[in-house]
């Protein structure tokens, strides 16, 4: 629990009075003055443009001020000609203001405008353009993703770049009534959205001084589910245009386990000319019960890849080592050229390698529940030998799940129609991480004889877990929950050249965020042979007790063993019990 410090919030009033006598300037944008080390670009001989759209909400505090400059941050000027900045009412609108810069420089370029254009509260597109003979990787993307902040134009066509961050573009506005005090709360993000019962919660907070004076002393506050506000006073200075970070620690005694909590966070100063940007909310929670997890293992492999048979053998060894009922394997024939089993959907999933499309792809590769591992930036990783891969798989299996999935299907041989039914059940705490979750349903096939697999000499080698089709949108369909349960049905015609007896259905519940490859976690998975049932869902509201024992039957807690096996027994209100082996 945080103790409240009794301190006084003091503003630099003298500076505010001094500036009040003359017009002053301030930067307005999304990048907080940051510049990327590595730039992004598009190929081809063409004119290129980049822009952000400043919303009415962003510009509202500056209505009546004049636009006096555009700041454009670029990472290189090599190969660039005809650089100019501009302000428009829309991306394709006429220039309201523009100015050419004869010799732009790497870094920030502040280009003065006439100063005759005033902010009226309407949205503004702010950007720059140049000509290139080939790719000029000058566009700087930095910070967190935001809508309408990654616009690039090539050959007269605007599209949002498939890259993380926002463009380094800012507007400079000048006026005699700019806010003298404005501490904006930019983000409030739980370090761990769901903690184990008894753990403290930590929320990382980012603030920015968006006014004309330095702020001496400020406060943060939080309240849980609209309850009593806890205030934390902070000694420190936030300079003009400076961004600062900090953390709020919420004691475990304030968090009721098993349910989501909405936490409201505020940034507080003694005087704030723009209170609308002081408050944000986030969800967090603590858990006592969880559900067994089946890990979605997505393999990238092709017949052109000479090392892929080794990786295929690694996954086979995992199944033989007892992990078969804790994993569902899907093989995407992509990543290293293509082969006769590659589908358009497989190629779309190459997005997970690098949303920008600049880093390239490779095989063999693997994703485990589409989770980004520590120290990595994307969920795709290389897959080595069994002894190296097993610990990573064990860690994935041990992650608690708060939703379960079940799948069953029936195959009509006469019509070659596969009917699929998927069900799910969630604990209340699941809504902290999966409120906008999706369902994806795949059909995969085993036992497909290879044609020209590199790296092997066997005539009997077959491909397994091959992705055949998706019965939902490529990125999943929205889950429609009825209370804590969901059900959905799909049907698909099976082509004659697919062996029906070798087909399986894989269903999983997950997030998907096209703006953030790290926000695509798979929460749980089910798999069943075509025409059979693989129902793994648990009646979420019937769990009455959970206990842990060592293999010899002696009681244990989940954390008592760092390796080996734990036996988890879940008791339900109807008197039934379910026993699960947990590999540590």
Which helices and strands, and how do they pair?
Blueprint: E1 10-11, H1 13-20, E2 24-29, E3 46-54, H2 56-59, E4 66-74, E5 80-88, E6 95-100, E7 107-112, E8 124-132, E9 141-142, E10 151-154, E11 157-160, E12 166-167, E13 169-175, E14 183-190, E15 194-196, E16 201-209, E17 215-224, E18 230-238, E19 243-250, E20 261-268, E21 279-287, E22 295-300, H3 308-323, E23 327-332, H4 344-348, E24 365-368, E25 381-382, H5 386-398, E26 403-412, E27 417-426, H6 431-434, E28 438-445, E29 448-449, E30 462-463, E31 466-470, E32 477-478, E33 485-493, E34 503-510, E35 522-529, E36 533-535, E37 543-549, E38 555-556, E39 565-572, E40 577-583
Parallel strand pairs: 15-21, 22-23
Antiparallel strand pairs: 1-17, 2-13, 3-8, 3-10, 4-7, 4-13, 5-6, 5-8, 9-12, 10-11, 14-16, 16-19, 17-18, 17-20, 20-21, 22-24, 24-25, 26-27, 26-36, 27-33, 28-31, 28-32, 28-34, 29-30, 34-35, 37-38, 37-39, 39-40
- Annotation, overall tally of beta strands: 40
Euclidean distance between termini CA atoms: 32 Å
How would you describe the shape? globular
Overall pLDDT score: 89
Task: Report the portion of residues in β strands.
Answer: 35-45%
Helix content: under 10%
* Number of helical segments with 4 or more residues: 6
Please give the largest β-sheet: 6 strands, mixed
């Amino acid at each position: 629990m945080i103790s409240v410090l009794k301190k006084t919030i003091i503003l630099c009033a003298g500076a505010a009075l001094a500036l009040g006598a003359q017009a002053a300037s301030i930067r307005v944008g999304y990048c907080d003055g940051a510049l990327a080390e590595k730039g992004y670009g598009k190929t081809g001989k063409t004119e290129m443009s980049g822009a952000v759209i400043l919303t009415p909400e962003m510009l509202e505090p500056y209505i009546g001020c004049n636009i006096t400059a555009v700041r454009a941050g670029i990472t290189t000027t090599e190969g660039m000609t005809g650089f100019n900045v501009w302000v428009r009412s829309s991306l394709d609108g006429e220039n309201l203001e523009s100015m050419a810069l004869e010799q732009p420089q790497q870094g920030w370029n502040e280009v003065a405008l006439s100063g005759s254009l005033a902010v009226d509260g309407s949205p503004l597109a702010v950007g720059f353009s140049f000509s290139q003979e080939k790719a000029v990787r000058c566009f700087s993307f930095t910070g967190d993703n935001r809508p309408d902040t990654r616009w690039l134009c090539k050959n007269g066509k605007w599209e949002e770049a498939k890259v993380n961050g926002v463009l380094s573009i800012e507007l400079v506005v000048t006026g005699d009534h700019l806010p003298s005090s404005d501490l904006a709360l930019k983000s409030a993000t739980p370090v761990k959205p769901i903690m184990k019962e008894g753990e403290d919660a930590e929320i990382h907070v980012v603030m920015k001084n968006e006014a004309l004076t330095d702020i001496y002393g400020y406060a943060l506050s939080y309240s849980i589910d609209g309850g009593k506000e806890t205030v934390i006073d902070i000694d420190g200075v936030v300079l003009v245009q400076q961004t600062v970070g900090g953390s709020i620690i919420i004691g475990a005694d304030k968090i009721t386990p098993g349910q989501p909590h909405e936490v409201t966070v505020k940034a507080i100063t003694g005087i704030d000319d723009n209170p609308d940007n002081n408050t944000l909310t986030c969800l967090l929670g603590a858990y006592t019960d969880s559900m067994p997890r089946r890990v979605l293992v997505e393999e990238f492999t092709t017949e052109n890849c000479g090392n892929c048979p080794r990786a295929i053998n690694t996954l086979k060894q995992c199944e033989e080592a007892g992990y078969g009922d804790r994993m569902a394997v899907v093989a995407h024939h992509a990543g290293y050229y293509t082969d006769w089993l590659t589908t358009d959907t497989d190629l779309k999933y190459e997005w997970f390698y690098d949303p920008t499309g600049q880093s390239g792809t490779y095989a063999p590769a693997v994703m485990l529940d589409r989770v980004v591992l520590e120290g990595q930036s994307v969920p795709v990783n290389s897959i080595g030998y069994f002894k190296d891969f097993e610990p990573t798989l064990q860690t994935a299996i041990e992650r608690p799940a708060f939703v379960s999935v079940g799948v069953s299907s029936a195959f009509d041989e006469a019509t070659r129609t596969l009917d699929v039914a998927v069900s799910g059940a969630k604990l209340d705490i699941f809504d902290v991480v999966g409120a906008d979750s999706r369902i994806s349903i795949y059909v995969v096939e085993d036992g497909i004889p290879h044609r020209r697999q590199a790296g092997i000499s066997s005539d009997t080698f077959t491909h397994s877990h091959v992705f055949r089709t998706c019965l939902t949108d490529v990125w999943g369909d929205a889950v429609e929950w009825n209370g804590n349960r969901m059900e959905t049905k799909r049907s698909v015609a099976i082509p004659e050249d697919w062996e029906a007896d070798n087909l399986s259905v894989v269903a999983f519940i997950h997030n998907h965020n096209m703006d953030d490859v790290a926000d695509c976690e798979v929460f749980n998975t089910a798999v069943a042979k075509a025409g059979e049932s693989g129902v793994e869902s648990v009646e979420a509201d019937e769990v009455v007790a959970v206990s842990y024992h060592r293999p010899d039957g002696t009681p244990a807690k989940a954390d008592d063993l760092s390796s080996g096996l734990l036996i988890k027994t879940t008791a339900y209100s109807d008197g039934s019990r379910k026993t699960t082996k947990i590999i540590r």
